[in-house]
Amino acid sequence: MKIIKAKTAGFCFGVDRAVKLTYDLVEKGHKVATLGPLIHNPQCVADLESKGVITAESLEQVPQGYEVIIRSHGVPARIYDEISRENMVCHDATCPFVSKIHKIARKASEQNKTLLVAGDKSHPEVQGIIGHTDGEVFVFADLDELKAWNGPKNGQNGIIVVAQTTFQVTKWLECTNFIKKGYTNAEIFDTICNATWARQQEAEDLSQKCDLMVVIGGHHSSNTQKLLKVAEKHTKAVTVETSNELKPEWFEGVDTVAVTAGASTPSSIIEEVLNSMSEEIREEMSFAEMFAESEANLKPVFAGKVVEGTVTSITPNEVQVDIGTKHTGFVKLSELTDDPAVRVEDLVKVGDKLDLVVEKVNDQEGVAYLSRKKLEARKGLEEVAKAAEEGTVMEGVVTETNKGGVIVLVKGVKVFVPRSQATLRRDEDINALVKQNVKLVITECAGRKIVGSINKVTAEANAAKRDAFWADVEVGKTYTGVVKSLTAYGAFVDIGGVDGLCHISELSWNRIKHPSEVVSVGDTIEVYVKALDTENHKVSLGYKKAEDNPWELLKNQYPVGSVFTAPVVSITKFGAFVRILPGIDGLVHISEISNERVEKVGDVLKVGDEVQVKLMDVDFDKKRISLSMKALLDDTAADAE
Question: Three-class SS of residue 169?
Answer without folding.
Answer: helix
